[in-house]
Amino acid sequence: MTTILITGASSGIGARTAALLASGGASVFGAARNTRSIESIPGVTPVALDLTDAGSIHAAVDTVTRDAGTIDVLVNCAGYGEFGSVEETALSDARRQLEVNVLGAVGLIQAVLPGMRAARSGRIVNVSSLAGEFASPLGGWYHASKFAIEALSDSLRGEVRPYGIDVAVVQPSYVATDWHDHAMERLEAASARGPYASMAAAMRAYFANPRLARQFSTPDAVAALIAKAALVDRPRTRYRIGPGSNLAVALATILPDRTFDALTRAQFGYR
Asked: Is 196 considered catalytic here?
């Protein structure tokens, strides 16, 4: 039986993915700071985890290893969006963004890799974002965290391949969860009343538009893609999901930077 440790399992995409993997017969350990909601997911064993605490990271991996013997797959799904202008976002908030989205994920990777190397097999799935391919105003720290995950995944893939370990990245675009609500709360706190207030208002209006909501991927669709990346025999290096996501990446690649900047500003309605 495949043993899987997945972070961010208390809600949203992480919870759906944990449930899906468990329903398929895997031994699933769902990790989060608050494990109460994980207890209600059939077949998923809750594991307490604070990604900003190195001791908690090692304790979580030790718990799973003690109970299951091995960790065959690590799915790094936990994360949030720190939105606001680069100028106005407090560095303490920026540090926490990187601690949770990047360093916490890497801490888990470092903790599980010795066991995977010993077994000469394993899989690491990092849930990134389309935001790891290009950046837009007011999301600089979130984009930075996802750019970092993309780069680290590429480096890691080459390092661990000789040990029979695969690394895959999943890149969702917009997903119908409460993630955006929290991101807009962070935007409001950082930039709603300063020199970027009109830009922040435009972004909030953009995400509140019902027409945009109809383009969101469902959590179940993203969960199915993550499960595929976790379990398929030969995973692709990247899995992308969301209407127009491939086109967006292509445009970011081929267009001059200032042309893409103008398209982004027009998309969000920035003046």
From this structure: no
Percentage of the residues of the chain whose pLDDT score is greater than 90: 92
- Number of domains making up the chain: 1
SS3 33: coil
From 142, 174, 239, 270, active-site residue: 142
Q: For position 208, which CATH number holds?
A: 3.40.50.720
Q: How far is CA 217 from the centre of its chain?
A: 15
Query: Based on the number of CB atoms within 10 Å of its own CB, is 224 exposed (0-12), middle (13-18) or buried (19 or more)?
Result: middle
Nearest to 75 by CA among 2, 129, 21, 124: 124
- 135 secondary structure, DSSP code: -
pLDDT band of 223, cuts 50, 70, 90: very high
The pLDDT tens digits of the residues spanning 93-148 come to 999 999 999 999 999 999 999 999 999 999 999 999 999 999 999 999 999 999 99
Token pair belonging to 74: 């690590």
Q: Which domain holds residue 158?
A: 3-268
Please provide the average confidence, as pLDDT, over all residues in the chain: 96
* Residue 4 backbone phi and psi in degrees, to 5: -125, 130
Compute the distance between CA of residue 155 and CA of residue 124 in angstroms, rounded to an integer: 13
